[in-house]
Amino acid sequence: MARCGCGGGQCDCTVQAGDNVTISGSGSAANPYVVSAEVPCEAVRPCLSGGPGITYDQGSGVIAAHLSGQAGNNVSIGPDGGLLVPTAGGQVLTGCGLSGNGTAGSPVKANTQAWPYPCSVDTFGGVVACDSQGRLRSEPRGMVSFTSYSESRDYNDVPIPAAQNTALDTFSVNITNPDTCRPAKVFTEREIDVWMVLPAGAAGGTGVASDEMFYMRNTGTGSIVGVHSQGTKFLAESFTLAPGASAPITLTATGGRGSGGAYYYSIVFIMRAMIISL
Question: Which of 31, 107, 146, 226 could form a disulfide with 26 if both were Cys (CB 3.0 to 4.6 A apart)?
């Protein structure tokens, strides 16, 4: 290095360049040493790596934001190259059943009303569900159906039994709940009509199960043909059918207190059912 009284090779200094370093100048006051260093990208890249929210390409050396591909992510790269999260305010259009514009002060929500009943909404409130096509659906609609069955059977002049409420014949039909979603209550109306012949002085009674509903004695001198009475019962003791289920309903025609050669030759059965699911 140059200084006063040091020259002519008396105090020479040697400066040697290392890796990625260049040296210029002679070390004199007029031409001092200038040390320059450059670090190439290839030497720096192994020290860098990506992390959460960052992508890093070691080949190109490009560092960028890592945007999640998860559904519902609204973060994007804006036209100016910066991260962009679109604001929802003023862009959300709501229709029937929805309110709000998507801002913090006016979030999108269901446009509900106050529960107007004295019972608890937690206990008695209905259900709104989403179907396979993404549409809102309410609970199944209530169903009320009516069905009727009838049958007529003829017999070969069978005597009316003496014992009261003796089974003459039994009729049975299947009732089906057409609602495949909910159980149904079934109410039935049942009719039995037993046709009898009462010779002079004869008597007989007919009924449903253990209930004798008609009795007649012939006090005349000739036979009475086609004696009958249509007994009707509405069974208020309803029963429940599971969704889509079927169950048999039976009805027994009875006769009794027969005397004097009384006999029956035909029985007509009618059954009507109302099936209600709400």
Answer: 31
Residues in the chain: 278
Return d(Cα 119, Cα 219) in angstroms, integer: 64
Q: How many CB atoms lie within 10 A of CB 139?
A: 11
CB atoms within 10 A of CB 145: 15
Find the helix or strand (DSSP H, E) in which 121 lies.
helix 121-124
Spacing of C-alpha 106 from chain mean position: 30
8-state DSSP, 132? T
Strand segments, DSSP code E, in 129-229 are: 129-130, 136-137, 143-159, 166-176, 184-198, 203-208, 211-217, 224-227
Q: What is the pLDDT of residues 129-151, one digit of tens each?
A: 989 998 888 888 889 999 999 99
Structure tokens at 102: 């998507």
Q: Tell me the CB-side half-sphere exposure of residue 70, using CA atoms within 13 A.
A: 3
152-to-191, 216, 277 alpha-carbon distances in Å: 12, 22, 31
Give the model confidence (pLDDT) of 216-275 as tens digits. Answer: 999 999 999 999 998 888 875 578 999 999 999 889 999 999 999 999 999 999 999 999
Residue 65 carries which side chain, given as an amino acid letter? A
Q: How many CB atoms lie within 10 A of CB 205?
A: 23
Measured between alpha carbons, how far is 69 from 158 in angstroms, rounded to an integer?
86
What is the end-to-end Cα distance of the chain in Å, rounded? 107
- Please tell me the predicted confidence (pLDDT) of residue 87: 64
In whole angstroms, give the CA distance from residue 65 to residue 82. Answer: 9
Residue 254 makes CB contacts below 8 A (sequence gap 6+) with 165, 166, 167, 168, 206, 207, 208, 209, 210, 212
